[in-house]
Fold this protein.
Amino acid sequence: MMRDLAFVCNNSRKRVHIQSVITLFEILRSYGDGFSREKWRDIMTEAIKPLFTNMQLSFQTKRFVREEEFQIHNEASREAFMRMIDIYNLYYGKLSYLLDLFLEVLAHSSESSNEQFAQTAVKALRYLINCCNVHFKEREWNLIIKTFGDICKNTTPTQLLNYSLNENALESAEASPQNSQPVSDKSLVQCVVQVMMIALIKDVMESYGHRLTDTVFLSFV
């Protein structure tokens, strides 16, 4: 049933799309206490991860003809991210061992070529840390920092790093505009994510650095 509901969550009709997201996470909130650890893992792998994967694909492959349609998907994605983290925080005792899967969803979503979806994912990562940091011990902080590294690595705008701006390249581009390589939208999105991650890492160090062990600190290097 969860898998079917997760599929419905990507319906293009506004009322169905947003309400199905709310319904999915309300079911988890209301009945999650009775789920076993194994059941939670199944829900995570069979419903929640596919839900966000499908959302990301919608943003990257679908052409939103109307602004309203885009806003529907944007609102639903924000709702899903926040409610997912609220569920994780509420049932932390049962879900703590699944932190790597929650972080995997956030990291993968931050690599989206759609700026709004990528930004929402990074904001959700910040929300996760702010909500749940009181529970975190060395294992959890190590996973968080590993996720920081993965996101920064996978969103590095390599096209810009390889983009030559020397005089010869500029002259060549002026002489043959068809041979010039414009900066892609994906690279611009990656730049936005990189800036957000720098701010997030800085804030985490300032707010929670006193709680990190020497081992965790070294993993930042």
Notes: The radius of gyration is 20 Å.
